[in-house]
What does this fold into?
Amino acid sequence: MAALVLIPVGTVISSFFAPASDIWQHLVETTLASLLVNTFWLVLGVASGTVLLGVSLAWFTAVCEFPGRKFFSWALLLPLAIPAYVTAFVALGLFDYTGPVQTTLRAWLGPELSWFPNVRGRMGVITVMILAFYPYVYLLARNAFLTQGRRSLEAAQSLGFNRTQGFLKVALPMARPWIAGGVMLALMETLADFGTVAVFNYDTFTTAIYKAWFGMFSLAAASQLASLLIVIVFAMIIVEQRFRSRMRYAETRQSGRVNRIPLTGWRSWLLVFFASGTLFLSFLLPVTQLGVWAADVFAQDFDQRYLEFLGHSLLLSSLAALLTCSVALLMVYAARRHPDPATHAAVRIATIGYALPGAVLAVGIFVPVAWLDNWLSELAMQFFNIETGLLIQGTLFTMLIAYITRFLAVSHSPIDSAMQRITGSIDEAAMGLGLNGWTMLRRVHLPILKGGIFTAAALVFVDVMKEMPITLMTRPFGWDTLAVRIFEMTSEGAWEQAALPAVALVLAGLLPIILLVRQTEK
Amino acid sequence: MNALLELRDIRHAYGKQVVVNDLSLTLRKGQIGCLLGPSGCGKTTVLRCIAGFEPISAGEILVNSVIVSNAGFCMPPERRHIGMVFQDYALFPHLTVAANIGFGLHRMQKTGRDSRIAELLQTVGLIDAAAKYPHELSGGQQQRVALARALAPRPDLLLLDEPFSNLDVTLRERLSLEVRDILKSQNATAMLVTHDQDEAFAIADEIGVMHRGEIQQWDTAYNLYHKPSNRFVANFIGQGVFLSGKILDPRHVEIELGILTGQFQHECKPDCQLCVKGHPVDVLIRPDDIVHDDTSPIQAAVVHKAFRGADILYTLRLPGGSTALSLVPSHHNHAIGEKIGIRLEADHVVAFSQSAS
It folds into this structure.
């Protein structure tokens, strides 16, 4: 399984040392600098924005008491259900020059709207991504604050600090590893993102890889771009791991009753305004607009083709969920049976795939598959004298391999943590009661693992459904899914047509969020 | 009377549930007080009210004769100059041991701060651990860091919330004596909360037994054991059983094992109801009040035995059918069912009127 990850990574990295092609030369001269600058600002903007928004909301919902706090603490996770590229095209549709907002404003205030920010610019992309990705920071920071915020604040107060000082000197530094973890997640998504930047025509590595491949038909240039992106991503992984290792802070348990700081008067209303504003922009507004658009085009677009997209998406997602969970289950059992460093390392490597941007992975999978295909067809030619054509390229098989590689980590962690609950003594107790082999699996392991497997399958299912670049770049010709349809419609600026498939994605996306909310509410 | 801490009829409620009910106590400077009681009796809440983490709905709390809490006012914790050792220690995991201890010394010059940190590291015996992080320390070491951190700013009063509950039993005993020495050496006034009476006895000068949000008795350990003021205290502190008996006169009471002679636990006033001759009472008999004596005419059957090393705690069935406990040196080893001779040997009497609880 580790090989599954290593092959694409190896392919992509080795291409970095490959002789530079003309196209590559051309890319370096023309676009590389702007790609780097664009990526830099995007990362910086999203990082600072998600921290500001995520940490502040996390603090207020975890430690303070204000009207609607319970509602906001879970509702603020909802934006996770909307793929960033959906938020993106809704934002463009609403706020662009021809969109309803600017049109209305022009009607009221005259044709000059020079003060209105350019939605298509850098700030537009960054804002959309912040709104889409802040829940990662919010979720992790809130966890940290809930378990230790209040208590550490009391400790600081008993040592003569007021609340503000306590927050800055104790609660914030203590939560730093969690906050950093959340930011890293947000940044991984940012770097891997293809759909959002494509909608905004904001060139980053992922779009450049796509263009090099499908615009200039240069797989070499695409993989060289991919290798650069991989370097950036790995640099981030290393940073993340360093923070992760410091997370082993002595965890203080949550004390029975959490005393919240009651906020009253204008402060509480300001807070309610802040929280509901965030929720409105990041979730309610996009969902409402989607609904309106979808209703507009429902009559004409809800046809045989739409059902076909839906069917493809569902088929692909279920297959991927099934396969990925099986592989993850095998891995977890292997690690349990042979808990040696080699297995451990293999598992670590195999789950790194999640950090690989889909565009990179598509390239990394495609190159060896193409090579294998050629080899196979030559072989067939030589021995059986049959013209096989391309056997694996452009089949579901390639797609599924890519999905497994990318989403193995997603399914691995819930299954693994469920497995952690089956301690050695549980096995021994079961054996002591006369169970072994299959009976033990069926009567003991399966019931314990069931929840974990279900969560894993749901997560992978939704992730595959939303996944855009892998699907776009490795799908069989003409084999469209919902995400592909969204890409095609948005690239023509047909927001209304993109809304109907997006509604299906959002509905599916709500599933894991409900799971998550139920988990956090416990 | 220089009372450092004074609680006057304080009351605290969560919603309708009254957790602390008209509670009063006084602690003098340099004393170590303790609130002892079963879990859920409101003792931790009292501590948190003193620290300023909880408001009170009636009464007042004074520190050095200054009101810090009353019904409408709650001075913020950071202005009270009261230190606190939390049950889970609440050490700052991102800071070293030295930085944790120095955390509350932010108003001090650097040199003064460093010497104070060094002094406390010396006091709690953690000089070698100064540069370590909390998660690298054992439970007992973390506990000492928490203590040092709270002591560092020389608070007027130190509060300790179940400070030893996360430690194992052997460590608990040793550390509680050590903590008493540290507190006394720093001349600190402290208030401790615990459910463990051994711990309370080891550390505190005065102990308040709490039940249902009220203090049942505020006294020394000796008096709590030997002169409990009500049945709850008598039951909660130490072991023992109640045997019914009759008052003969203010120094004598008759039970089925014979006549007990000694000072009654309460002051006998002229109009005392309890000391009327013939008044039915329940008499508290501790395991050390009954001694083993082969020559004694009173024979009791062994129902249960618990070997404790130096002695054995026997549960005995008395001839009248009631049960009693007896602590006997362990070389007197008797089988269950065997009858052994016993005799009363007590120099004070704890009796409660049978009608009252």
